[in-house]
Write a structure and sequence with these properties.
Shape: rod-shaped
Number of strands: 7
Structural class: alpha+beta
Strand order of the largest sheet: 4-5-7-6
Helix content: 40-55%
Length: 284
């Protein structure tokens, strides 16, 4: 089974180069843990993905935290616990997180985010476990002008977006550059498809009206083509219309001998359809 789109985007983010600023590395770790208080670090990071666990381990190694990693199986899945060697009481999360908001968002998305395939829907969300997580995440989002909607699903608070431009901005903040290109490409393709559909629908409607008009003209001319007073030029046009009710006026004009313009065909057709006496009429 292939990876879901959300997992592909997370893989792209997880492989991104680690921030050079220690504060931003810490902010990402806070996001990965979904922590809001320093004492939550005592049990380490609990992660259900090997891809994300590797990212967390690399961050801790870069920060010289001498991390220890433990692996266990539950519900047929591998789970990872990564514990850094640090004094949790010395960690000031507020200054770290607010100073490196995009890094915190990256960690939060990797651990508890979801993103729909842009070809199937416009949706990005964070599933949160506590009011503290919600308050901290909103505190980071608002200065970045990223305004989510909110709902409760199965007892969890969910912050989500259904605005394409907001999602693209959020992905750019997190460093998901390939995903940004995919979303922008999907937006361009959708615009082009909508434009093509409008043109096709318009052309189809015009063609339908043209054919219906041609068939009505052919029905009327069937009764007039045998009129002996009908001038040869008009008779030729009447016979062409009866034989080809689906042709446009331009196509009729080009088929006449000699060919005439669309406006000339329209003029002759109006004369044919008036029902006048042709005995004293000209040949045009």
């Amino acid at each position: 089974m292939g990876w879901s789109y959300a997992r592909q985007v997370k893989a792209e983010i997880a492989r991104e180069t680690i921030e050079s600023l220690p504060a931003c590395m810490w902010a990402e770790l806070w996001g990965l843990g979904g922590f809001s208080q320093p004492d939550q670090w005592r049990d380490g990071l609990k992660i259900g993905s090997a891809l994300i666990a590797r990212r967390a381990y690399r961050l801790m190694k870069t920060l010289n935290l001498s991390p220890r990693i433990m692996v266990y199986r539950a519900s047929r899945r591998m789970h990872f616990v990564i514990k850094p060697n640090l004094n949790v009481d010395s960690v000031d999360e507020q200054s770290l997180i607010l100073g490196c908001g995009p890094s915190y968002l990256r960690g939060m998305f990797l651990a508890r985010g979801y993103l729909a395939d842009p070809e199937r829907g416009i949706h990005l969300e964070f599933g949160l476990d506590s009011e503290a997580q919600r308050a901290l995440l909103l505190h980071v989002l608002l200065p970045l002008h990223l305004r989510p909607k909110e709902t409760v699903r199965r007892g969890r608070t969910v912050l989500y977006w259904k605005d394409r431009q907001q999602i693209i901005r959020l992905l750019a903040q997190m460093g998901a550059h390939q995903a940004v290109l995919e979303w922008e490409s999907a937006q361009v393709m959708k615009t082009v498809k909508n434009r093509v559909n409008r043109l096709v629908n318009s052309e189809t409607a015009n063609l339908r009206r043209s054919v219906e008009s041609g068939m009505e003209q052919a029905r009327i001319l069937q009764k007039k083509v045998s009129d002996p007073s009908l001038p040869p030029a008009l008779r030729e046009l009447a016979l062409l219309r009866i034989a080809h009710p689906d042709w446009s006026l331009k196509e009729l004009g080009l088929a006449l001998s000699p060919p005439i313009s669309k406006s000339a065909v329209n003029h002759r057709m109006r004369r044919l359809l008036k029902g006048q006496n042709f005995e004293t009429d000209g040949q045009n």
